[in-house]
Amino acid sequence: MEIQISVRNLVEFILRSGNIDNRRFVVAETAMQEGSRIHRMIQRRMGSDYHAEVAVKFRYETDDYAIIIDGRIDGVIIPVGSIRAGKEYELESLVREDQLITIDEIKGTFREVYKMREPVSIHMAQAMCYAYIYAAQNDLRHIRVRMTYCNMITEDLKYFHQEYSYHELSIWFENLMGEYRKWADHEFLWREKRRKSIQNLSFPFRYRDGQKELITYVYQTIYHRKKLYIEAPTGVGKTISTVFPAVKAIGEGLAEKVFYLTAKTITRTVAEEAINHLRELGLQFKTVILTAKDKICFMNETECNPVCCPYAEGHYDRINDAIYALLTGSDSFTRERICEYAEEYRVCPFEMCLDMSLFSDGVIGDYNYLFAPQASLKRFFSEGNRRDFIFLIDEAHNLVERGREMYSALLRKEDFLTLKKTVKEHAPNISKLLDRCNRDLLALKRDTVDYQVEPYLETFNESLGRLAAAMEKYLEANENSPVKKDMLTFYFDILHFRDVKEKLDKNYVVYAQIEENGGFFVKLFCVNPSANLREYMQRGRSAILFSATLLPITYYKKLLGANDGDYDVYAKSVFDPDKRGLFIALDVTSKYTRRNDTEYFNIARYIYEITKNRYGNYLIFFPSHLFLRQVYERYLEYFYNEQETECILQEEHMNEEERERFLRRFSGISEENGSGLPVHSDSNLLGFCVSGGIFSEGIDLKNDLLIGAIIVGTSLPQVCPEREILKRFFDEQGENGFDYAYKLPGINKVLQAAGRVIRTQEDVGIVALLDERFEQSQYRKLFPHEWQNIESVKIDEISDRVEKFWNDWL
Phi, psi (5° rounding) for residue 2? Predict the structure, then answer.
């Protein structure tokens, strides 16, 4: 058996206890996202004897298993004359200073490097680990380590050199591995348990129609190291159909870890429930649910400072004991369990949560933990090496817009002025640098023509670099500053902007915009996130992307990083299509040219005619809050009967408690009785919502908890400069720009809203599309295969058609 760990994880995990450098370098390490540019710059400057990005893999044998330690050396300097016959090294000459092979470890920083007196110990330990591996594999008696620190603004360099004999490094490395053996021994015993439990594991349910074939597709995709895009209608059991073959693949030794990634908290819970079903059949499988810092932090404010947070003070001295206790005490590392152990051992629950991922077979969390440059789990993905990870990506239709957000960056001119006023008394130098950036943006604002900002970008980016350097210096020296929080947030925004600036390519559009309120911003807009998403998915063995609304699949494959040869499949729906009443209204629309009192009245009448024949819960989706209000007011004026109907509205800004209260009404729980019994058996509950909002996807109202969805309009995004940039970009690519910018995102919202109705094989319900445009072939061809028996109706006919539908099923 092999246990794999990266050089970075090995060194940081074992040596972090009591290391104050880790605390000093919190800000500096965050700045390392700019480090790739520095690495490339330094590596290009080196001579022919410099070999950059040298991948290494070392096998450390024990009696029962092997530990595979891998990583990537920034640079190996091999002097001319030190190689014999292209392979062997002149061992007797390598003790000469000019002949020593050197391992170069590069770190970018905003610190003034000339003030550094010694390298950071964790950094040096990482370089020593590489030096030992390289010396062992190449029969070297002596080797040199060079720590290279580079200021990312001035590009000043500071070198620290240290020579080691192989004997010295061997002793040091054996001690390091001795510390790690406790963890590796536990991992070895656990993997044996896991493997045996998976061998005899059977599928926990009776297979639904087509489900066994879907499971086979997933397994074969993992086996062949491909990506699979699945259109999986509600009810096919997509979660267990992807989790089960992924677990089986781990049991067969094809993969080492599963990442279940999603945009919604509720689907993370569903993933854990699927694994729990397998645990009931004997599966031994450790999982962690990653929770956002602001939700798991014990403190009122998430200020990660030992002075302010008692859980941060001494965290590194206690964290490994806390991890081992939880590791040996549970298989399911939920938020509640992590908080319990973090409280007992007085450690940061967020950092503990991330650390538990190292010892988990399944990691469940947000897309950010793989795809976002700032939040990606460095424990697994920082080296850029491909590992045998399986990525299960749920609700994948959300990843297009999320990808655009993650790989885009925006800075507002007004934010520079606001922070300038805030810090002026505390940091006058930074105030001046903020003013410099503001003046750069002011020049751009005056001269902006047709969003062409590239000529100004380099100057502005240089000003940002100087500002970031000054901010880091201030933050490091003034941990208790009253402006620290405001400055730190903006500092991260600047780093992200500069990081995205390095990614600019043909998939980006850089533009600036003057807003209606006079505000001004510049944005690095990732129009097509496909290349960036592909880069991150290539860090694993296989990726399975699935959603109930991944139509058309060709569109999503183009934007979600598909390679030639990747697979796609349309899973068969298990529901009886006759249990869904589908209606298209032929005489109303949400077109801007038709938005008037008559249209609002007719839509309100449709709502009344559809809901009057059967009491129950209905959700009604509108293209905007303004449109919702217009129709709602007509409904109240002309059709509302308080004895028969209750109306609740999705407000523009709802906190978590308000959202829960809204959903509880549809779950049959009233604020008065607090019971779980149906409270609308003799009346209607109408929920007025916005398409694409918080209630149009990710909620699971089964059976009679929801009997109808009424979707007003085609849910096209509002026309705005950014949507027009998308349209123009894809037109220039030879695609239909209107489809990419408007129609396809809109139809996805429609399908998501419609999918709230039929959740189980027993469900019966109505879906009404209130817009005459749905009758057009360009929309009809985008409907799911299982949408059969669609009826086209007019306002005077809808009541009778709906009544007939219900009579057929009652």
Answer: -120, 135
Query: Which 3 state secondary structure label does DSSP give 233?
Result: coil
Strand ranges of the sheet holding 520-526, from the earlier edge strand across to the other edge: 409-412, 520-526, 508-514
pLDDT single digits (tens) 775-808: 999 999 999 999 988 999 999 999 999 999 999 8
- Structural tokens at position 94: 């390598």
Phi-psi region of 548 (alpha: psi -120 to 50; beta: other; left: phi over 0): alpha
Q: Cis peptide leading into 552, omega within 30 of 0?
A: yes
* Residue 302, token pair as written in the block: 């998430």
Q: Of 531, 538, 541, 551, whose CA–CA distance to 230 is shortest?
A: 551
* Residue 767 backbone zone (phi > 0: left; psi -120 to 50: alpha; other: beta): beta
Task: Give the range among 48-52, 698-702, 753-757 with minimum mean pLDDT.
Answer: 698-702
**DSSP run (H or E) holding 52:** strand 50-61
- Distances from the Cα of 120 to the Cαs of 15, 21, 77, 324, in angstroms? 12, 6, 21, 27
- DSSP class of 227: E
Say whether pLDDT at 15 is over 90.
no
CA distance 374 to 34: 11
Strand segments, DSSP code E, in 605-739 are 617-622, 645-649, 684-690, 708-712
401-405, 447-451, 742-746: lowest mean pLDDT where?
A: 447-451
pTM of the model: 0.91
Is 361 within 8 Å of 194 (Cβ atoms)? yes
pLDDT bin (cut points 50, 70, 90) of residue 694 is confident
The residues pairing with 257 across neighbouring beta strands, listed in sequence order, are 389
Cα torsion 790, 792, 794, 796 to 10°: value is: -50
Give the count of alpha carbons within 13 A of 278, CB side only: 31
Q: How confident is the model at residue 83 (pLDDT cuts 50, 70, 90)?
A: very low
Residue among 231, 242, 208, 215 nearest 575 (CA): 208
The C-alpha angle with vertex 705 and arms to 702 and 706, in degrees rounded to 5, equals 90
- Average pLDDT, integer, range 170-187: 95
Amino acid in the structure at residue 471: M
CB-based contacts of 69, cutoff 8 Å, min separation 6: 4, 5, 6, 7, 10, 57, 58, 60, 129, 133
Question: Is 245 within 8 Å of 239 (Cβ atoms)?
Answer: no
What one-letter code names the amino acid at 370? Answer: L
Burial class (CB in 10 A: 0-12, 13-18, 19+), 88: exposed
The tokens for 169 are: 């490094």
What is d(CA 50, CA 103) in angstroms, rounded to the nearest whole number? 10
Query: If you compute the radius of gyration of the chain from its CA atoms, what whole number of angstroms results?
Result: 30
Q: Dihedral of the CA atoms 336, 337, 341, 342 (nearest 10)? A: -40
How far apart CA 450 and CA 589 sit, in angstroms, is: 33
Question: Residue 268: which residues within 8 A CB-CB, separation 6 or more?
Answer: 260, 262, 289, 364, 365, 366
Per-residue DSSP letter, 741:
I
Distance CA 59, CA 168 (A): 19
Phi, psi angle pair for 407, to nearest 5°: -105, 10
What six digits make up the tokens of 421?
């006023």
Q: How confident is the model at residue 25 (pLDDT cuts 50, 70, 90)?
A: very low
Give the residue from 624, 621, 627 showing the smallest Cα distance to 599.
627
Which tops the pLDDT comparison, 657 or 686?
686
pLDDT digits (tens, 9 = 90+) for 143-164: 999 999 988 778 889 999 999 9
Q: β-strands 580-585, 790-793: how paired?
A: parallel
Q: What is the model's pLDDT at position 89?
A: 42
